[in-house]
Each structure stands twice: as structure tokens, then as C-alpha cells.
Specification:
The complex is a heterodimer of chains A (about 150) and B (about 140). Chain A has about 150 residues and is of the alpha/beta class. Chain A has four helices and eight strands; from the N terminus they run αβββββαβαββα. Chain A has a five-stranded mixed β-sheet with strand order 5-4-3-6-7, with no helix packed on it. A two-stranded parallel sheet of chain A has the order 1-8. In chain A, strand 4 and strand 5 form a beta hairpin. With about 140 residues, chain B is of the alpha/beta class. In chain B, a hairpin with a 5-residue loop joins strand 2 and strand 3. The chains are: A alpha/beta (about 150), B alpha/beta (about 140).
């Protein structure tokens, strides 16, 4: 009976953390993140956004936000499809009627001449999409003063 | 001899001890490579189409953005034009708004001016808590 530490060894509780279920937990997490990830529907465009100090985050759910891209040469892209400036209202009109609280996110290049932006804004008004946002990068005050 | 033979027999099971490491490695990889697409910007609410509102000239601050980024500020009907930069608009607005609480900022941008000058001015106005802003195009 009194062997090598025979008495003290009687406690059967394992001194190690059980690692056999660790893999299951890790895969479960992995699958959870994979399932909850929502992919961007649109391809990236070659657009440089303007900076703004007053940049705010939009609290609207993603499905209520429609991105309208404007490239430097004036190309307008809605849902990855190039749209002529005078066609914008006919594309957005049905969406605006369908989605309550639609916000049109105008992702326009910083060097686009303003008459194109004005044209798009007028088209949005005609389509009944009154809530818009101009996509900007947050500008830090410190950086601004140094310039 | 019999004992030696037993030692060489490969295990019949897939080794699972490193499975957790592999899974966590995948998890960390995806966490690190994920880029969140934040929705942010300057909000505006456009007026309804064809809804013209008569506004007294006394309550209008005209902000006229020129193609080269110079901003002309005109107060109501006064003919005096102040030349300034987009960065100075915030202070001008605060001053004018302190004198007149019904003030409306009428931002008119030249057709050829880059979009970023309009955003700079809009940024200054929003940072100065201006709520009544009208956007338009500058007719020559």
C-alpha cells in the first residue's frame, strides 16, 4: 500500500485542462463567424474619398443603405452596373419605393467635378430618395493643423 | 522479439491533439484578414423635388465655392463679398449664427469645382452644428 506516494495520489481529479474538446470549440467558433459574416456585394472601385472632420457612423442596417459610386471620370455605378447620369432616378426610384428609410450613400471621388454630383442629387430627389450621405474618411484634427 | 514488433505498429487513429491548434490558427487567420466595411459619412436630407420655399434674404448666408477652391461668402443682400478658404467657414458660420438664429447656409458650388471643396465646406458647417443647409450649383 505505501508505495511511491500511494496515499497522496488517491485524488482522481485530473490536474490537466481537458483538451479533447478544444478542437470542437475552435471549429464551432470558426463556423459561427463564417455563418454570420456578410460579404460585400460590390466590387471595389478606384475611388479616393474626401476627408471630413464631422464624419459620422451611419446607424442604419446595412440592407437599408444603397451605395452609389462615382469615379473620377464621371462613371456612376449602382449595384456594380454602370448607370448613365439621367438613368439614376429610374434605377433608384423602385428601390426607394420598396425600402422604407433608404439611405443613399454617395461614394464619390474627391476630384469629381461638382456638376455631376449636383446632377445625381437632383436625380435622387426625383426618385424620392431624400436621405443621402456623402461618404468621407474621418479626418483627425491634429493632422489637419499640421498641414 | 515479440515486444519489438508491437512497438512499430502505427496507431489506428488520426492524431487529434493538434486539431485544436489547426482550428484556432484558421480562426485567427480569418479574424485578422477580415476587413470591416464601415458605413460613415456626412448626412444630408434633401428637400422634396419642386418644393420651393420663400426665404428672406436677411436669413441667408451665401457660400459660393469657386473652381480653384476659393470661397466667396456673401451675407443676404449685401453686395460685399468676402474671399476665404473652406477651413474658415466654420468660424464664419458660428459668428453669423450667433447674430441670427434663423440663418440658412446656401452652399453653391461652381460646376467645375472638385467635389472635395463642397465636402470641406459641408464638413465645416456640420462641425459647427449648422442644421439648415441648402446645396446647389453656382450659375455663372
Amino acid at each position: 500500500m505505501v508505495g511511491k506516494g500511494g496515499l497522496t495520489r488517491k485524488s482522481k481529479a485530473a490536474s490537466e485542462i481537458p483538451s479533447s474538446s478544444l478542437a470542437d470549440m475552435a471549429f464551432l467558433l470558426l463556423i459561427f463567424f463564417m455563418v454570420t459574416t456578410v460579404f460585400r456585394q460590390e466590387a471595389d472601385r478606384d475611388v479616393v474619398f474626401p476627408d471630413a472632420e464631422a464624419t459620422q457612423r451611419l446607424e442604419e442596417p446595412r440592407k437599408d443603405i444603397l451605395n452609389v459610386y462615382m469615379e473620377r471620370d464621371g462613371g456612376i455605378f449602382i449595384n456594380d452596373r454602370m448607370t448613365a447620369p439621367d438613368q439614376v432616378s429610374s434605377v433608384i426610384g423602385p428601390i426607394s419605393a420598396d425600402v422604407r428609410g433608404l439611405v443613399v450613400m454617395l461614394r464619390s471621388d474627391r476630384d469629381v467635378p461638382y456638376y455631376l454630383v449636383d446632377q445625381v442629387l437632383k436625380e435622387l430627389q426625383a426618385a424620392g430618395a431624400y436621405r443621402v450621405a456623402f461618404y468621407t474618411n474621418l479626418e483627425q484634427r491634429m493632422l489637419r493643423e499640421r498641414r | 522479439m515479440a515486444l519489438m514488433k508491437k512497438k512499430n505498429r502505427p496507431s489506428g487513429e488520426i492524431p487529434t491533439s493538434s486539431m485544436a491548434d489547426i482550428a484556432f490558427l484558421l480562426l485567427v487567420f480569418f479574424l485578422v484578414t477580415t476587413v470591416f466595411d464601415e458605413q460613415r459619412g456626412l448626412r444630408m436630407v434633401l428637400p422634396e423635388a419642386d418644393s420651393e420655399v420663400e426665404v428672406s434674404q436677411r436669413n441667408v448666408l451665401h457660400i459660393l465655392i469657386q473652381p480653384n477652391g476659393v470661397v466667396h461668402v456673401r451675407r443676404g443682400e449685401a453686395p460685399a463679398v468676402q474671399q476665404t478658404t473652406p477651413a474658415a467657414i466654420g468660424d464664419i458660420w458660428r459668428q453669423e449664427f450667433a447674430n441670427n438664429e434663423n440663418l440658412i447656409a446656401s452652399v453653391k458650388t461652381s460646376p467645375q469645382a472638385p467635389y472635395r471643396y463642397m465636402v470641406d465646406v459641408l464638413d465645416q458647417l456640420q462641425a459647427a452644428r449648422a442644421e439648415r443647409i441648402a446645396l446647389g450649383i453656382l450659375e455663372e
